[in-house]
Design brief:
The chain is mostly helical. The chain has a domain of 123 residues. It is built from 5 helices and 2 strands. Strands 1-2 form a two-stranded antiparallel ribbon. A hairpin with a 2-residue loop joins strand 1 and strand 2. Helix 1 crosses helix 2. The longest helix has 73 residues. It is flat and about 120 Å long.
Length: 232
């Protein structure tokens, strides 16, 4: 076990020197970390900027090839449309062949129209319009005029009385006004029954229940069904 007396005390200069060195080292480490962080951030921004520039340059280089490919596909589709209009492709009686001697320069407006119709934006718009028309045809989408009328009918429908008033109305409809006692009507609109009266007495046979009133007659020992009586 180490001797506690050999430990340096607070007044020892070695402790102050160690504290100063630790503080200086911590501060130097923090400054170096901040510098490295700024340098990494600068490098990351430079790499992202170069990547965006490279992607843009590659997009510029590929645009002529894409346009050439689109023009080729449009030309093929235009020529196919012309061939489909010819009833007999094997007929060699025509002087100018299947295309009637038409040059590609003359077909350029049709090719441009085909390319324009096949644009992704135009295709999405065409698909949306088709879904809208199909929805109106099969009833999935209602007409705005009919739906507005139905909405107004729902909003302006007659309102029913609250539940408590509804119960009171049904109670008064089923009873005559002369026989209704307002003290016997509960909050739910129903008739409140009088409380039950029960009494006990000790007999030789043990504890038993008997009716308080003589409205219920029984012979012998009372059964459970005759142990309660209503004094109306």
């Amino acid at each position: 076990m180490a001797d506690i007396q050999n430990f340096p005390k607070l007044q020892d200069k070695r402790l102050s020197l160690i504290g100063k060195q630790t503080h200086r080292l911590r501060k130097t480490t923090s400054i170096n970390n901040d510098k490295l962080k700024d340098r990494c951030s600068t490098y990351g921004k430079a790499i992202d900027r170069d990547k965006r520039s490279y992607d843009y340059k590659m997009w510029q280089k590929t645009m002529p090839h894409k346009q050439y490919y689109i023009h080729t596909k449009g030309t093929q589709r235009c020529l196919k449309r012309i061939r489909d209009q010819v009833p007999d492709l094997d007929d060699e009686s025509g002087m100018y062949g299947v295309y009637g001697g038409t040059s590609l320069r003359d077909l350029q407006p049709q090719i441009d129209t085909i390319i324009k119709n096949q644009h992704p934006r135009v295709r999405r718009l065409r698909k949306t319009e088709k879904l809208l028309s199909d929805g109106k045809t099969d009833g999935r989408i209602m007409n705005i005029k009919e739906s507005r009328g139905m909405l107004e009918a729902i909003i302006n429908r007659p309102s029913f009385p609250p539940r408590r008033e509804r119960g009171m109305t049904l109670y008064f409809k089923t009873r005559r006004p002369s026989t209704v006692d307002t003290n016997d009507i509960t909050s739910a609109g129903a008739l409140r029954l009088p409380p039950l009266a029960v009494s006990r007495e000790n007999t030789k046979s043990g504890m038993m229940f008997r009716p308080k009133s003589k409205s219920v007659a029984f012979k012998g020992l009372p059964k459970r069904s005759t142990t309660f009586a209503l004094d109306l």
